[in-house]
Design a protein that fits this description.
A hairpin with a 2-residue loop joins strand 7 and strand 8. With 206 residues, this protein is of the alpha+beta class. The protein has helices spanning 16-26, 46-49, 99-105, 169-181, 193-200; strands at residues 2-10, 28-41, 53-59, 62-68, 72-74, 77-87, 113-129, 132-145, 150-163, 187-188. It has one domain (2-200): Hypothetical Protein Pfu-838710-001 (Beta Barrel). InterPro entries: CYTH-like_dom_sf, CYTH_domain, YgiF. It holds the Pfam family CYTH. Its EC number is 3.6.1.25. It is an enzyme of class 3 (hydrolase). GO terms for molecular function: inorganic triphosphate phosphatase activity.
């Protein structure tokens, strides 16, 4: 099980160009990738009530399944548990998950179905800041909830902790965030893509 630590910042339209230019100049560009994602839950929204999110992601020819469990988010900084494994196609494969994740999903497996989608292009950079290695991902796309015919834009920057002194992760991420906020008018966001998707689908307690 990995622990994901990231700072999420909302990006207005007029900030995209200067933000990308700063990252090009101060980070190592890793190109861009199109990510197509479907989130699943039971009709009773058992995962949403447990503050968990289950996702199938297509990344090029590769399919990944990811389970994220309840974490904390404040001032845009989130810390949560995450399990991710490769699968053969657009279907959950419980046997490839570790015991803790499988125990949560097994009782729900026969009732899981798509609830919403998040599809976006991610531009990536690796940034060295204050002794740490951080991945900056600029995401632009849409969240769609077919049941309510609702759609919402994705335009955000995720600063994900990769390596360094983890005890200083929050301070370092906030430090880089403050540096970027001096470059462009970014604002912290505490809502994950999954929480926004559930909200569009009419689930308030995600």
């Amino acid at each position: 099980m990995a622990q994901e630590i990231e700072l999420k910042l909302a990006v207005p339209d007029d900030a995209l160009a200067q933000l990308a230019a700063w990252l090009d100049a101060n980070g190592e560009s890793k190109g861009e990738v199109t990510l197509l994602n479907v989130y699943l839950d039971t009709p009773e929204r058992d995962l949403a009530r447990a503050r968990a999110a289950l996702r199938l992601r297509r990344k090029g020819a590769q399919w990944l399944q990811t389970l994220k469990t309840a974490g904390q988010s404040q001032g845009g900084l989130a810390s949560r548990h995450e399990w991710e494994t490769e699968v053969d196609g657009e279907a959950i494969e419980l046997q490839t998950l570790p015991d803790e994740a499988r125990a949560l999903l097994a009782p729900l497996a026969d009732r899981l179905a798509p609830v919403f989608r998040t599809d976006f292009v991610r531009r990536l950079w690796i940034v060295q800041h204050d002794g740490a290695r951080i991945e900056a991902g600029l995401d632009c796309g849409t969240i769609t909830a077919p049941a309510t015919q609702a759609q919402e834009r994705i335009q955000e920057l995720e600063l994900e902790w990769l390596s360094g002194d983890e005890n200083r992760a929050a301070d370092v991420l906030h430090g880089l965030g403050a540096r970027l906020q001096a470059v462009a008018p970014l604002t912290p966001s505490d809502l994950s893509k999954a929480a926004r998707g559930y909200r569009l689908a009419g689930v308030d307690n995600a």
